[in-house]
Amino acid sequence: MPFARPQLRSHGDLGFETYLRWLMVALMLSLLGGQAQAADALFSVTGVAQNDVLNVRAQPHPSAEKVWTLPHDTTGVQAMGSPRIVGSAEWRQIRIENQTGWVNARFLTPQRATSAPEPIFFRAPLSCSGTEPFWGFQLTGKTGVLDSLAHGKATLQFDTVRNPGGVPIIWSFRGRQKPSNASVIAVLEETNACSDGMSDLTYQYSIRLDVADGPFFAGCCNALAGQPAP
User: Fold this and answer.
1) Is this structure's pTM higher than 0.85?
2) Do the beta carbons of residue 80 and residue 100 sit within 8 Å?
3) Is 23 or 200 the better-scoring residue by pLDDT?
4) In whole angstroms, what is the distance from residue 109 CA to residue 91 CA?
């Protein structure tokens, strides 16, 4: 009785099969990544008249059932998957608030990614002043403009602001005066009882402003005119 001869595969065959498996895995990951990227794309509705709406349909076809509509100025429309060509038109599947449907891609425009706004350095722009000698100080973000009757005008550029632990109504600002580069420390406290010593007005904040080897100012501050209260 003849013996069946075993089928032997060379190391080269095994390497080729392994290569094919890895190729298939890479292709699947690429497709999944492309779908995830497409799903993250956001669009705005454009090209629709102000008195009209964009129809959203159950299937990518102009005669498919209309499931809902989008106003002419809708933004934040999330696209799902890849576009589909039907006839001469390109369609996109979209999702809004867990609802899905298909729209003609002609009426969608990609939304540009916007950079994150810079963190607020302090809760509101401030306008500060004091007497003997008369001086004024305006703080907007990290930049302050100091104008003193005795010392002239200077720009203060702050780098850090912080609170002492457990005391959220006191702030310490540290920075430099330009162009002299002298160090500056400002201490701000929310007292709602600061007085300018010349009137019956009370201010929300008291401030101490110390320029190294220069003037030391004490005065009061309020939110800059035209700005919302903190």
Assistant:
1) no
2) yes
3) 200
4) 13
